[in-house]
Automatic annotation (TrEMBL):
UniProt family annotation: Belongs to the phD/YefM antitoxin family.
Keywords: Plasmid
Protein name as catalogued: Prevent-host-death family protein
Entry superkingdom: Bacteria
Record-linked InterPro entries: YefM-like_sf (IPR036165)
Length: 50
């Protein structure tokens, strides 16, 4: 429910790795022309780099 108020960082080994946000916020980000994409666990490209 915290993501209803603001995006929530999910950490792994004390480093931010993922962000959980509402779908409405995600859609608004896409509408602004943001090219980032959300991937499911089995969809991450093999050439993905940080």
């Amino acid at each position: 429910m915290a993501a209803d108020r603001q995006p929530v960082a999910i950490t792994q080994h004390r480093r931010a790795r993922y962000v959980l946000m509402t779908y409405d916020d995600f859609e608004a980000m896409k509408q602004k022309g943001d090219q980032r994409r959300a991937y499911g666990p089995k969809e991450v490209p093999l050439n993905w780099q940080r």
